[in-house]
Amino acid sequence: MITLQEQAYAKLNLTLDVLGRRPDGYHELESVMQQITLCDDVEIDLETGEDWKLECDWPEIPTDSENLAWKAVGVFYKTLGKDPRGVTIRIAKRIPVQAGLGGGSADAAAVLRALNRHEGEPYSLWELAQLGAKVGSDVPFCVMGGTAIVKGRGEQVNPLTPMPQCFYCIARPDFSVSTPALFAEFDQQGSDWRPDTPGMLKALEEQDLLRAAGSVRNAMEPLVAQNHPEITVIRSIMEDCGALGTAMTGSGSAVFGVFDAFDMAAMASMQLMEKCKTYLSRNTD
Ligand code: C5P
């Protein structure tokens, strides 16, 4: 038996814009995404000689072929035309689920990276990201990591000059959002809360943290905030603690604040702790 280990890093959508609905039912996205240090630990046993299984310390996580990490093993070995002769996946979770932090996608991307390394890198990082698109829309970015602009369904990932070093306070209110339902609501209602993506790209190019942080925005946020005022409350508490910018990530419900000093991010985390779970994180690079 062989055991592989890999860390699975969460993502933030620094900006998220929805440009329209596609003929395949998915949505055309434009998002500046950032990989952060908040992570799960993933272990994969190969050649166990037993049925495939997945073990996770959080009961709400599916432990069958519904889990994106399981799907990723299937897609990888099917494409490679090989049989791993029995697989066990163990996931120690830290990334909150259904929070817009890409937890399941991060686990799948970690699986793809670990298997690719183990098999002698049959795929380039770019090819691996394209394999990831078969598993889930956020997987290609999670494979590539860093700071990137992501377009299409999520499969077009173009690396950017990294987000300047900063600290994130992430707050996860006690509700989750159905991603398909939120997209359907977006189709009905639209949004005039659009990010200034060119402004964000320029800020990154110029390594201007103040402007980059001030450009974080999520077009889907008002649709969530109209039913869940805690989103707005969390953002204003973060701003009172000195956040340079705040936004919801993905389809929520997590909200992040960007800080230039750790003690301010920690202060925001302490202020929010009574209301919700909080996490402190940084860019992975
Ligand atoms: O690809 P994934 O399974 O992560 O997507 C979850 C759901 O989010 C999809 O079923 C779809 O309803 C919605 N989605 C979308 N457009 C995207 C990505 C996701 O409509 N670009």
Could you explain how this protein is built, in words?
The structure is a single chain. Strands 1, 2, 3, 4, 5, 6 and 8 form a seven-stranded mixed β-sheet that branches. A four-stranded antiparallel β-sheet has the order 9-10-7-11. With 285 residues, the protein is α+β, with helices and mostly antiparallel strands. The mean pLDDT is 97. The chain has two domains: 2-159, Ribosomal Protein S5, domain 2, CATH 3.30.230.10; 167-282, GHMP kinase, C-terminal domain (Alpha-Beta Plaits, 2-Layer Sandwich), CATH 3.30.70.890. It has ten helices and eleven strands. The two termini are 33 Å apart. The protein has helices at 68-80, 103-118, 125-133, 139-144, 179-189, 197-205, 209-214, 221-225, 230-240, 262-272; strands spanning 2-21, 27-46, 53-56, 87-92, 147-152, 156-159, 167-172, 217-218, 245-248, 255-259, 277-281. The structure holds cytidine-5'-monophosphate. Cytidine-5'-monophosphate binds next to strand 2 and helix 5.
